[in-house]
Give the backbone structure.
Amino acid sequence: MITGTKTKPMMMILSLSKDTVQVQREQDVVLLRNRIREAAVKIKMGLVNQTKLITAASELLRNMLRYGGGGNCLIEVVTRGRDNGVRLTFSDKGPGIEDIAAAMRDGFSTGKSLGLGLPGAKRLCNEFDLKSKPGEGTVVMILKWANG
Amino acid sequence: MSFNTLKLLQKQKKNILETWMKNQLSDEGLREDLISNEDLRTQSEELISALVANLSGEDLADLEGDSWNPVIEILGGIAITRARQGFSPRETGRFVHTLKEALLEVLQHEVEDPKQLFEESLKINRVMDNLSIVTFETFIKGREEVILRQTDEIAEISTPVIRVWDGILALPIIGTLDSSRTQVVMENLLQEIVETGSSIAILDISGVPAVDSLVAQHLIKTVSATRLMGAECIISGIRPEIAQTVVHLGIDLSNIITKATLASALSYAFKVLRLEVRKSSSVQKSNSL
């Protein structure tokens, strides 16, 4: 498990709204991106953070489509004290990740891509959590605060 | 279906057709703008002939049977044409449902015994319901084809190669850049470079909503391919938020010439081609007046 640096365990993160989107094809990426943008606009997230969140989401989505054979994405608007944010949870039932430490390294790819998806998504977000069991699937959670 | 009813329906074919046509023509959803009455009659007649010819004995409820193929084929053909012509699902559904009503109406006139009438009606219902399911499946398939064709058309339309100057091509990319789009973009661009003998290509990504590592990879590939053709490729339209995101992602675009706007990319291209854009003296005079 890899956790972001800015976690404040003292305060509870509350979920305000939930929305699940199924992702099975490449076309669903556009739909999901629009949903995420809607959630981000609702909490008045700035353009730069919106773009970062959407880019991170689209990295994870592509991973999910390519390696996990599609899955679900849970979009949540969350709040912690005075901060609002968007939390995305991507879960698939694919083959899982064998070596998580390697997968989080820049330039590592089992496919032919640049190998920036997972580490890049982590850098673009405030919190990042990856759980994976070989043979059972992968769950990735990312969180971006509106002014984080 | 008992032998009697079958015979009856075959005998009453004309009657059924008339009742059906009457039903269809009096229906509110009749689309005279999409199909002429003659065409409608021909379609209906064709379907009834196939249907009556097929109402033989035991395999009535079993639409998987081979004997049903002609009916399904005709019905499928009608449904697909209707989907393309722009009929609504309700209108297409009514087409089959009015036939069912017509069949039942004729049956009601001809069969006296209530028990027999009920049994025969049940059978007809089962057949016609199955047929309407087939109609819907085909109709939706037809619609999906329309959607797929439009997707292709959009992909085609959205990747124009523009000759902005002698030797300079511009390619505005609008929308998401996925692998298939990249393929189209690259093909069009490389082809145009050959045809026009251009030495500079400008890829404008102002209309791309998000640049993730896959999009970046596609861009890098396009640039490399352009360079192999002996032309230089400039990427323009990089918005501030995109620039920040790309840096955070860790994508290295330093080998590529990038500009914030199409205008600055064009002026860079002019510089490379040693062209100069100046206000002409006569215009200056008229300005000063």
Observations:
- The first helix of chain B runs from residue 3 to 11.
